[in-house]
Amino acid sequence: xxxxxxxxQLTMTLSQAWGKGVLTNPADGVSDIRNLARLMAGYDRFFPxxxxxxxxxxAQQVDDPATxxxxxxxxxxxxxxxxxxxxxxxxxxxxxxxxATASGSEDVTINVLENHGHxxxxxxxxxxxxxxxxxxxxxxRVL
Length: 143
Description:
This protein is mainly alpha-helical. Helix content is 47%, strand content 8%. A two-stranded parallel ribbon has the order 1-2. Strand 1, helix 4 and strand 2 form a beta-alpha-beta unit.
């Protein structure tokens, strides 16, 4: 009874997930709730958990002298492009910027999207211009 429509309920639920606008920001019109619902319909909720387990497993081997794994981080020669969403919070944003600039690449491009959440960077109403067109220009420049 709190919401008049399922769309309104989903908008408020997703807008508050992880904190105000952190996961996505349909309440402020940054992303269209219908696009988010379509995205969620095909979402595999187990994938991130598997990805996180694999990431932790690799991270535990970093200081293991018996491990031959070396991702060459800090010595990358490839160009790097970073997109950060301000609604993720200062720690996340600064960690992303730090990682991009600490990669070792001499060609780092930083893009910060104001009032965007994590998923908004992929499906937001302005990503065609603020993300995809930027990536296209970046790819054409670095090739």
